[in-house]
């Protein structure tokens, strides 16, 4: 018996974006040590764009996603300009249907379209103090600030990070708080090095920071805590336990 598989199947196969969600996205995050700010992808089946963008929006929501299409009539193998009537079914697009009065040049000078200060941000551990100082200046004075120590190569962080992001960006306990995510190292070896500066940084505990993921409350933007309050014990537990511990910790901080 012979089987024929249509080349069009990849345009509807959910395994296509899933492969990039599980493989390409995490690989880019590891290779850039979490410092990626923009992701630009050409659009063929759109599997790369859809899978990677879903991963980035979970682990680092401020990453900007840009999809590219060639000009009309371009002959680039594997990349095409899709007509509106024929888009891959795996392509997931959002839009806002709005009338004329929803925005025009008369509004552009008022500041109404100015982006708000970022409530959530990511940094590399070597730039932590500088990033933290700048981040505090951009926040409302009374906004509580939290730090999540994480790494893209850490399985426990892969479990914890999407849950923490959801709690801080949703309507729950962390809705009015700011979250700074700190990447502790490009590799496991870098993090495990006894000379790592966090090992002796007593801000994160009497013996420094010893495990990831770890969540810390740093006080408010204008009144930082000299000794941050730290939540550890997020390793090797399931998603529901992570959610319970993080939400309980946030409620304790008021």
UniProtKB/TrEMBL annotation:
Residues 152-221 form the Thioredoxin domain. Residues 11-80 form the Tryptophan synthase beta chain-like PALP domain. Residues 1-17 have a biased composition (Polar residues). InterPro entries: Cys_Synth/Cystath_Beta-Synth, Thioredoxin-like_sf, TrpB-like_PALP, TrpB-like_PALP_sf, TXNDC17_dom. Residues 1-24 are annotated as: Disordered. It comes from Durusdinium trenchii. This is Cysteine synthase. The lineage of its organism: Eukaryota, Sar, Alveolata, Dinophyceae, Suessiales. It holds the Pfam family PALP.
